[in-house]
Design goal:
This is Membrane-associated protein. Keywords: Cell membrane, Membrane, Transmembrane, Transmembrane helix. It is a multi-pass membrane protein. By secondary structure, this protein is mainly alpha-helical. The chain has one domain. The chain contains ten helices and no strands. Helix 2 crosses helix 4, helix 5 packs across helix 7 and helix 6 packs parallel to helix 8. It is elongated. The model has no long low-confidence stretch (mean pLDDT about 80).
């Protein structure tokens, strides 16, 4: 319970914890950032670690002069790319083992073929957009691997998505993270970065489900 409480407190007050770590351990903060982002994107069972809020706070700390913006971005981009590649590889390894059970209740060849077709057609956009959605960014590369998406194509969009995600949010934190209004309402901004993308993803999935049902032939 203590670990869970600490993780929740770290996620909701990542600005304070990260600043304290920088002051106490200096350059070791870059190793910490690499581990957090790599684990969040590379280990499918750890989707709750901070992502967007972490990038924003890192940018803000760089704007304060506590960290190097180029080094921080380079570390975060490397962690994001390698994390997704790891997650993709895990999914690619497990996929054939799972979907070979033709008569399984939960997994079947038809589902595999549908997932494969989806990721071959929309996988690039999915990989990029998933970067900005908590939880989904952890599962999207894994599912892409399970669906046997072309590795070269996945890698291309993985790199593009990581660059847009890290540079976009960290830059926003660098220029706006230390404004008085932002500092005053930082807790609300962190909640927004956690909840809003997730709600958008849920709404999109709901609409997609309704559209699929509407398009299905009536019996």
């Amino acid at each position: 319970m203590e670990i869970i409480s600490f993780l929740i407190d770290f996620i909701l007050h990542v600005d304070k914890h990260l600043q304290e770590f920088v002051i106490a351990y200096g350059p070791w903060v870059y190793a910490l950032l690499f581990v957090i982002v790599f684990v969040e994107t590379g280990v499918v069972v750890m989707p709750f670690l901070p992502g967007d809020s972490l990038l924003f706070i890192v940018g803000a700390l760089c704007g304060m002069g506590l960290m190097s913006f180029p080094i921080a971005c380079a570390v975060l981009i490397a962690a994001a790319i390698l994390g997704d590649q790891c997650n993709f590889s895990i999914g690619r390894y497990l996929g054939p083992k799972v979907f070979q059970w033709e008569d399984s209740r939960f997994f079947n060849k038809k589902a595999f073929n549908q997932a494969h077709a989806f990721y071959e057609r929309y996988g690039g956009v999915t990989v990029i957009l998933a970067r900005f959605m908590p939880f989904i960014r952890t599962f999207a590369p894994f599912v892409a691997g399970v669906a046997d998406m072309n590795r070269g194509r996945f890698t291309l969009f993985n790199v593009v998505g990581a660059l847009i995600w890290v540079l976009g949010i960290a830059t926003a934190g660098y220029f706006f993270g230390n404004l008085p209004f932002v500092r005053q309402h930082l807790d609300k901004i962190i909640w927004g970065l956690i909840l809003v993308p997730g709600l958008i993803a849920i709404f999109g999935a709901w609409r997609a489900g309704r559209a699929e049902k509407a398009a299905a032939p009536q019996t």
